[in-house]
Amino acid sequence: MKRIAVLTSGGDAPGMNAAIRAVVRKALYEGMEVFGINYGYAGLVAGDIRQLHHNDVGDMISRGGTFLYSARYPEFATEEGQLKGIEQLKKFGIEGLVVIGGDGSYRGALALTKHGYPTIGLPGTIDNDIPGTDFCIGFDTAINTVLDSLDKIRDTATSHVRTFIVEVMGRNAGDIALWAGVSGGAEQIIIPEKEFDMAEVATKITEGREKGKKHTIIVLAEGVMNGNKFAEELYKFGDYHARVTVLGHVQRGGSPTARDRVLASQFGARAVDYLKEGKGGLCLGIVNNEIIASDIIDTLEKGSHRPNVALYKLNQEISN
Amino acid sequence: MKRIAVLTSGGDAPGMNAAIRAVVRKALYEGMEVFGINYGYAGLVAGDIRQLHHNDVGDMISRGGTFLYSARYPEFATEEGQLKGIEQLKKFGIEGLVVIGGDGSYRGALALTKHGYPTIGLPGTIDNDIPGTDFCIGFDTAINTVLDSLDKIRDTATSHVRTFIVEVMGRNAGDIALWAGVSGGAEQIIIPEKEFDMAEVATKITEGREKGKKHTIIVLAEGVMNGNKFAEELYKFGDYHARVTVLGHVQRGGSPTARDRVLASQFGARAVDYLKEGKGGLCLGIVNNEIIASDIIDTLEKGSHRPNVALYKLNQEISN
Amino acid sequence: MKRIAVLTSGGDAPGMNAAIRAVVRKALYEGMEVFGINYGYAGLVAGDIRQLHHNDVGDMISRGGTFLYSARYPEFATEEGQLKGIEQLKKFGIEGLVVIGGDGSYRGALALTKHGYPTIGLPGTIDNDIPGTDFCIGFDTAINTVLDSLDKIRDTATSHVRTFIVEVMGRNAGDIALWAGVSGGAEQIIIPEKEFDMAEVATKITEGREKGKKHTIIVLAEGVMNGNKFAEELYKFGDYHARVTVLGHVQRGGSPTARDRVLASQFGARAVDYLKEGKGGLCLGIVNNEIIASDIIDTLEKGSHRPNVALYKLNQEISN
Amino acid sequence: MKRIAVLTSGGDAPGMNAAIRAVVRKALYEGMEVFGINYGYAGLVAGDIRQLHHNDVGDMISRGGTFLYSARYPEFATEEGQLKGIEQLKKFGIEGLVVIGGDGSYRGALALTKHGYPTIGLPGTIDNDIPGTDFCIGFDTAINTVLDSLDKIRDTATSHVRTFIVEVMGRNAGDIALWAGVSGGAEQIIIPEKEFDMAEVATKITEGREKGKKHTIIVLAEGVMNGNKFAEELYKFGDYHARVTVLGHVQRGGSPTARDRVLASQFGARAVDYLKEGKGGLCLGIVNNEIIASDIIDTLEKGSHRPNVALYKLNQEISN
Question: What general EC class does the enzyme of this chain belong to (chains A, B, C, D) (predicted)?
Answer without folding.
Answer: transferase
